[in-house]
Amino acid sequence: MASARPFLGRPPLLQQHPPLPSRHITRPLLPSSSVRLSSSSSAVVPMSLPQPHSSFEVIGGARDLFLPSLSYLSRPYSPYPFFASNRHVETIFASFFRSAPQVKYRRQCLRTKDDGSIALDWVAGDDPLLPPDSPVLILLPGLTGGSEDSYVKHMLIKARSKGWRVVVFNSRGCGDSPVTTPQFYSASFLGDLHEVVSHVNTLYPEANIYAVGWSLGANILVRYLGQESHTCLSGAVSLCNPFNLVLADEDFHKGFNNVYDKALAKALREIFKKHALLFEDIGGEYNIELAANAKSVRDFDDGLTRVSFGFKSVDEYYSNSSSSDSIKYVQTPLLCIQAANDPIAPSRGIPREDIKENPNCLLIVTPKGGHLGWVAGDDAPFGSPWTDPLVIDFLQHLEIGTVKSGTSPQSKEALHHLEV
Question: Active-site residues: which are they?
Answer without folding.
Answer: 215, 342, 371
